[in-house]
């Protein structure tokens, strides 16, 4: 299915206008729109503008607070807790990243736990901000209930994303950004919208039977990656994201995908290690670059080996100057534009056959 290309600035402007139209302050609207467009430019469409109509509907229904009051409490010199008051996840995470960077600059390490938040988009968007400050960043979050534990049949866990990033020479960080489910929930939604199947092993239907039908998967449950090991990691990330605050576990949550008025009380945990406090930023960047080079150089004949984050950055470089959207996403955005009295930007001439 051929994608439809748009200028990045046009999409950011449209997303900002759409959010502002439902009462989101301009700075918050701009931040959120930028994060969504950045995900699309990296090929992570499940966390891109596909979600904008959901955010708008949840704001209108009360599931997301367009004008939150962020409240801080401190646990120690290196720790802080943020109550996000139902904010857009991007708004909560921007504040959390700024605070954790300041804490790590003072103490060498910093930790911020967040409660009463919502979906924050792609995790790499936030770890990149920490890496730019010479820090190693670790980010994780709860989500709505979508995943069954290994051996289970009930939706008890979220897709529980994990992002870990370390600075490297040349501003090309080593970045792992992954869900702990075999596939991201947003990718299943995108497959349903596009009328395509999902890969085998991603999900079971409501009766616990394996399925490649995204609609049946959404009615059933996603599966953790890596069997018992991936399931164990998902459970631990659930604990880290929600047990340090009053944030809700996935099984205590009604997802805004299901009920737009649901206050999900999503929990995040953001950790930062200031490399300057250890052996120095230059040392860490050189060592990480050496590791990346060895990984890339390990490919066998006719193969390629990528360090974590390489694929997404290559996609972003290929999409420089344009952002491809799936036709089904364009249809959703056009419907959203009409409902808000806005106009979707005109697409650019095709430049990417994907």
Automatic annotation (TrEMBL):
Membrane-spanning ranges: none
Superkingdom, natural source: Bacteria
UniProt-annotated stretches for the region Disordered: 297-318
GO molecular function: oxidoreductase activity
UniProt keywords, alphabetically: Oxidoreductase
Family: Belongs to the LDH2/MDH2 oxidoreductase family.
PANTHER family, alphabetized: MALATE DEHYDROGENASE, OXIDOREDUCTASE-RELATED
The protein, known as: Malate dehydrogenase (NAD) /L-sulfolactate dehydrogenase
Species lineage: Bacteria, Bacillati, Actinomycetota, Actinomycetes, Micrococcales
């Amino acid at each position: 299915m051929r994608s439809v290309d748009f200028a990045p600035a046009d999409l950011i402007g449209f997303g900002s206008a759409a959010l502002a139209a439902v009462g989101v302050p301009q700075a918050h609207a701009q931040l959120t729109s930028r994060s969504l467009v950045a995900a699309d430019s990296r090929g992570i469409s499940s966390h891109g503008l596909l979600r904008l109509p959901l955010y708008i509907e949840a704001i209108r229904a009360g599931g997301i607070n367009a004008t939150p009051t962020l409240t801080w409490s401190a646990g120690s010199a290196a720790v802080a807790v943020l109550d996000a008051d139902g904010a857009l996840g991007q708004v909560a995470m921007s504040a959390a990243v700024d605070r954790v960077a300041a804490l790590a600059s003072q103490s060498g390490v910093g930790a911020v736990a967040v409660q009463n938040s919502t979906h924050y988009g792609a995790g790499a968007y936030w770890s990149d901000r920490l890496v730019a400050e010479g820090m190693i960043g670790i980010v994780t979050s709860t989500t709505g209930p979508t995943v069954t534990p290994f051996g289970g049949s009930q939706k008890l866990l979220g897709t529980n994303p994990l992002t870990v990033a370390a600075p490297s020479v040349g501003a090309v960080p080593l970045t792992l950004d992954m869900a702990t489910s075999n596939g991201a929930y947003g990718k299943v939604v995108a497959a349903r919208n596009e009328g395509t199947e999902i890969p085998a092993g991603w999900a079971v239907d409501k009766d616990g039977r394996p399925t490649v039908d995204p609609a049946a998967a959404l009615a059933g449950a996603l599966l953790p990656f890596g069997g018992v090991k991936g399931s164990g990691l998902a459970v631990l990330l659930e604990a880290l994201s929600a047990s340090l605050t009053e944030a809700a576990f996935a099984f205590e949550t009604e997802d805004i995908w299901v009920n737009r008025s649901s206050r999900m009380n999503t929990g995040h945990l953001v950790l930062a290690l200031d490399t300057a406090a250890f052996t120095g930023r230059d040392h860490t960047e050189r060592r990480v670059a050496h590791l990346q080079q060895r990984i890339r150089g390990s490919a066998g004949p006719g193969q390629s080996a990528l360090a974590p984050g390489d694929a997404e950055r290559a996609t972003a470089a290929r999409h420089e100057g344009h952002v491809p959207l799936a036709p089904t996403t364009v249809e959703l955005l056009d419907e959203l534009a009409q409902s808000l009295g806005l106009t979707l930007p005109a697409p650019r001439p095709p430049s990417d056959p994907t």
